[in-house]
């Protein structure tokens, strides 16, 4: 099980020239919260000023208050140092509260934006993208940015302010010692940039590997995946495949955490050794006749220099984190930049009363410009309340034809109309109200029966649920369950049989009461007895509705007003059941094939 690339993964890494644009996009995420961020900035500034003032108080204590025995001044200066510590702590708590709240709101906005974008993507996108990859983008990538958006930005401002304020204070105390302290700073900055670039590359690889592993888990640990693995005797093979994916992730995690560790360790050692260098420089200056440095000035300077150490190292680490996070932001922006294939028109048409006439007018469809047409020159009219059955061999374009009506795909030529209006001109709400789809693969949420039914109509009453279930011939079975309509259906509805799930899907569609119904091989996977029960439910659902049936078993379409036979994306035959049998063409051959496949008992 090797990971499949998706379109986003085929996008090359952002070039250095794109970085300013990417940074601007990140800053745009914080624009709605600039008022709160301004408050954070004020708190950061106030905290930095208070921190810088403390060493000056210490200098006065050592140089003036203690030598001169001024107890009152000593008490006042000591109280000032205590008050400074209290204010710094209070400012820090408030700063953390506001910045974390802003960061979490930004993450919420990102998650919602990505999810909303994916909801608007066409069906084609999801047919070529692994579900686990999509989940990984929302969970792992956005989750991996949590530290950046909640604390890194504030940490950057806070540390930068502290560094600037501290350097200014150091210059005010003694410019010569300040020059000695800052000689190696450019080297440290260069090292941190190298480490950041290295970690960014590793992070991109790590997130792709996490997405691949998430996709493997999603596919192989679903109910269907477990059934397939067990029945094919591949459980051990799948476990080994997952172990291989995990092993690759182990290597990337180790590389990510160790990238630049030795270089950053050197920075830490040098910064920790700086007080000794300061004492040495002060001694040498005095020894060779330079201006003397008082004990208070020296202690205050070393205190500032040590205070400079923490924010400087933190600032360098923050720079590394930001470069690492750029890889995560890039992956998220790839999804936000995905082109929307199916969009609502600028001035959508809304139909209040829907009759249900459906027309295919010289319809052509292909998945991409270079691909062969899946459908071409399709001209079909289904009157309001009428029924159309579409049959043909596998791959003839039957399901695609049905999916054009609710705009799961858009035509690439011609048009599909509902009540004379091109479906591309209708608003999405009208399409959702007008068209119901019952497919062969019924999807049920891991929730109660009632919740699954109410997905179609959230405000449905219990009486409406029961009426829909009775029409779909599933009410008696639901009522016989220990928890009735509160029974949890299980993952993908696996606590119910195929026929029961289909009838639940039909009840859900009955609850919506759409005037146009698309039945996409809704009974092809069922046994004959179950098919008859489901077909009775479908007949109840189809009454007085415009119905398009995509059929595999021809026994379900004999009563259709019109039957169309597709072959290689074209209409090969059309007519009623009797008319097509009389032509003794493709349809008659399909009927004879079905007759041979029907069970004799």
TrEMBL record:
GO molecular function terms noted in the UniProt entry: ABC-type oligopeptide transporter activity; ATP binding; ATP hydrolysis activity
Membrane topology: Multi-pass membrane protein
GO CC annotations on file: plasma membrane
Record keyword Cell membrane present: yes
Pfam families xrefs: ABC_membrane (PF00664), ABC_tran (PF00005)
Domain ABC transporter: 358-593
Residue stretches spanning the membrane: 37-58, 70-98, 163-191, 264-282
Keywords carried by this UniProt record: ATP-binding, Cell inner membrane, Cell membrane, Membrane, Nucleotide-binding, Transmembrane, Transmembrane helix, Transport
Name recorded for this polypeptide: Multidrug ABC transporter ATP-binding protein
């Amino acid at each position: 099980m090797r990971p499949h690339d998706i379109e986003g993964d085929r996008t090359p890494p952002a070039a250095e020239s794109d970085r300013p644009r990417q940074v601007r996009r990140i800053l745009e995420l914080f624009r709605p919260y600039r008022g709160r961020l301004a408050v954070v900035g004020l708190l950061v500034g106030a905290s930095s000023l208070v921190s810088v003032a403390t060493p000056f108080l210490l200098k006065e204590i050592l140089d003036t208050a203690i030598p001169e025995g001024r107890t009152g001044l000593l008490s006042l200066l000591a109280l000032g140092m205590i008050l400074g510590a209290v204010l710094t702590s209070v400012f820090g708590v408030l700063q953390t509260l506001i910045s974390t709240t802003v960061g979490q709101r930004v993450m919420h906005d990102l998650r919602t934006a990505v999810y909303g974008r994916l909801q608007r993507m066409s069906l084609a996108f999801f047919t070529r993208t692994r579900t686990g990859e999509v989940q990984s983008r929302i969970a792992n990538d956005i989750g991996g940015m949590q530290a950046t958006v909640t604390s890194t930005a504030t940490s950057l401002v806070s540390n930068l302010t502290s560094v600037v304020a501290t350097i200014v204070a150091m210059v005010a105390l003694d410019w010569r010692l300040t020059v000695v302290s800052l000689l190696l700073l450019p080297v440290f900055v260069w090292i941190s940039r190298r480490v950041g670039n290295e970690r960014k590359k590793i992070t991109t690889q790590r997130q792709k590997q996490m997405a691949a592993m998430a996709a493997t888990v999603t596919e192989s640990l679903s109910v269907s995946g477990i059934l397939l693995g067990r029945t094919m005797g591949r459980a051990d093979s799948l476990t080994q495949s997952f172990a291989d994916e995990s092993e690759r992730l182990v290597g990337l995690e180790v590389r990510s955490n160790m990238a630049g560790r030795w270089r950053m360790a050197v920075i830490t050692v040098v910064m920790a050794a700086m007080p000794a260098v300061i004492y040495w420089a002060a001694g040498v200056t005095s020894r060779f006749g330079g201006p003397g440095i008082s004990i208070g000035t020296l202690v205050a300077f070393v205190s500032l220099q040590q205070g400079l150490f923490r924010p400087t190292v933190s600032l360098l680490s923050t720079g590394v984190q930001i470069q690492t996070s750029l890889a995560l932001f890039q992956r998220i922006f790839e999804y936000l930049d995905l082109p929307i294939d199916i969009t609502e028109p600028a001035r959508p048409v809304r139909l209040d009363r829907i009759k249900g006439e459906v027309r295919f007018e010289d319809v052509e469809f292909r998945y991409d410009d270079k691909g062969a047409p899946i459908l071409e020159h399709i001209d079909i009219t289904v009157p309001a309340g009428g029924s159309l059955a579409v049959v043909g061999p596998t791959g003839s374009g039957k399901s695609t034809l049905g999916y054009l009506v609710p705009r799961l795909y858009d035509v690439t030529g011609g048009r599909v109309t509902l009540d004379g209006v091109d479906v591309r001109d209708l608003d999405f709400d009208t399409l959702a109200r007008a068209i119901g789809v019952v497919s062969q693969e019924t999807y049920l949420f891991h929730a109660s029966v009632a919740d699954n039914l109410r997905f179609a109509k959230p405000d449905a009453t219990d009486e409406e649920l029961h009426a829909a279930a009775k029409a779909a011939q599933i009410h008696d079975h639901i009522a016989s369950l220990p928890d009735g309509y509160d029974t949890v259906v299980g993952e993908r509805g696996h606590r119910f049989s195929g026929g029961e799930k289909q009838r639940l899907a039909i009840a859900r569609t009955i609850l919506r009461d759409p005037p146009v119904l698309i039945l996409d091989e809704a009974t092809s996977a069922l046994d004959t007895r179950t098919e008859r029960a489901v077909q009775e439910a479908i007949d109840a659902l189809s009454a007085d509705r415009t119905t398009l049936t995509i059929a595999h078993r021809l026994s379900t379409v004999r009563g259709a007003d019109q039957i169309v036979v597709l072959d290689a994306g074209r209409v090969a035959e059309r007519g009623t059941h009797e008319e097509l049998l009389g032509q003794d063409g493709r349809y008659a051959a399909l009927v004879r094939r079905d007759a041979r496949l029907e069970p004799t008992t």
